[in-house]
Design goal:
This protein is α/β, with parallel strands linked by helices. The protein has 11 helices and 15 strands. The strands form 3 sheets. The chain has a 7-stranded mixed sheet, with no helix packed on it. A 6-stranded mixed sheet has the order 9-10-11-12-13-14, with helices on one face. It has a two-stranded antiparallel sheet with strand order 1-2.
Length: 399
């Protein structure tokens, strides 16, 4: 470092140290568009309702729980996760009913809808981290190589956190002809990684893009953004409502529960299938991730307050991101579905299914999980899931 280097502004020095995986900050015309957004207030994107985006409670107590040897063992499978090795034969024939979903793990889902292929939050990397040597590592392999997936019409990104926006995956997809639908500001990352601007559809909440006859609407979510220590909230987070000529689907991205699900459902639903975040919840961040009970409540809100369609649980099973037991989201969602009378699909990672056909419902995780307590279960005759209080819903996070 020369003497002149010390004269550089501190912010410039920090940026020079950032690796490519950190992405890029919005600037120029993109930043001007961000400033014009009605959701960008006081220099940052705002949630639809108030939300704490930093962990609450005692950091020391959280560390004790998170790094305790026995607690850490609960957060990983006891054996090999039974991944379905997706083959070309699985996906070669179009879905008989016009809609097929393949959960690839975490929040990655291939949706084949009305003759088009939509890939949500694709993460094929080994770690959700800016570094290849540190950060949460996959608990199971990707069900198939990304190159074997075949052509994709649209890649949809919910937000720019590492477990949803993965540099090596985006780099690989940038070399194809796919279109990328992303929330406002996220295009800065993609442009740095080689995605041409003319293949991006960068949307604010409630804006819609039409690609190959499919409408993709960025809908509100209750979360936050950022890929570095300095989080400026200059990239938006979103859920997505996708509408084809015959079918409607919804992907929640990451979100805390909020009343806006009812509005999204009224505007864009009801949905044939929803993909709902039900994992990585904790009492330390109750506003930005949903528990399984809240996820069920969100699905019912999206469907007009009644059981309808199929719920596919996402954001669980692939990465260790929260203090709860590894298989707890699956068990809790199973109970919540039975209580609400709502149909829930439980595919193994990589197992395709059609919402209108025979659904995978076996509790496949039980063979590789430690015993799971069920503190969320209530005596028969207690109130329904949609009426459950926040305190009841967070009981699992208090163990």
């Amino acid at each position: 470092m020369t003497g002149a280097d010390y004269l550089l502004p501190f912010r410039t020095k920090l940026r020079s140290m950032r690796t490519e995986s950190f992405g890029a900050d919005p600037a120029g015309a993109r930043m001007e568009r961000i400033r014009r957004s009605p959701h960008f207030v006081d220099g940052a994107f705002q949630n639809p309702v108030g939300a704490r985006t930093r962990p609450s409670g005692s950091t020391v107590e959280f560390a004790k729980i998170y790094f305790h040897k026995e607690q850490r063992a609960r957060r990983t499978p006891t054996g090999t996760v039974p991944v379905h090795a997706t083959t070309l034969a699985d996906l070669a024939t179009p879905p008989a009913g016009g809609l097929r979903l393949t959960w690839m793990g975490h929040s990655s889902v291939l949706a084949e809808i009305d003759g088009r292929r939509i890939l949500f939050d694709p993460v094929w990397g080994e770690r959700c981290s800016p570094f290849p040597f540190a950060g949460p590592k996959r608990l199971h392999p990707a069900p198939l190589p990304l190159a074997a997936l075949g052509s994709v019409d649209v890649v949809v990104i919910s937000h720019d956190h590492y477990d949803h926006l993965d540099l090596p995956t985006i780099r690989a997809l940038a070399g194809t002809d796919t279109v990328f639908a992303v929330p406002l500001g996220v295009g800065a990352h993609l442009e740095r990684w080689g995605v041409p601007p003319n293949r991006m559809r960068e949307l604010d909440w409630n804006e819609t893009a039409t690609v190959a006859g499919i409408s993709l609407t960025a809908t509100p979510a209750r979360h936050f953004c950022g890929r570095g220590l300095r989080n400026q909230q200059h990239t938006l987070w979103a859920s997505w409502a996708v509408t084809g000529p015959e079918h409607r689907i919804y992907h929640s991205g990451d979100t805390g529960y909020f009343p806006g699900f009812r509005d999204i459902g009224a505007e864009h639903g009801p949905f044939d299938a929803t993909m709902i975040q039900i994992g990585a919840y904790s009492e330390y961040w109750p506003d930005i991730h949903m528990t399984p009970a809240e996820g069920m409540r969100a699905h019912l809100d999206l469907q007009g307050g009644r059981p309808h369609g199929v719920l596919l649980p996402i954001h669980w099973g692939t990465f260790n991101l929260a203090p709860h037991a590894w298989a707890e989201p699956g068990e809790w969602t199973r109970d919540a579905g039975e209580e609400a009378g709502q149909t829930v699909a439980f595919p193994r990672p990589g197992e395709p299914f059609e919402p209108a056909g025979k659904l995978p419902t076996a509790a496949w995780w039980r063979g590789v999980s430690q015993p799971i307590a069920h503190p969320w279960r209530r005596p028969r005759g207690a109130e329904s899931v949609s009426e459950t209080s926040r305190g009841d819903m967070d009981l699992a996070g208090e163990r």
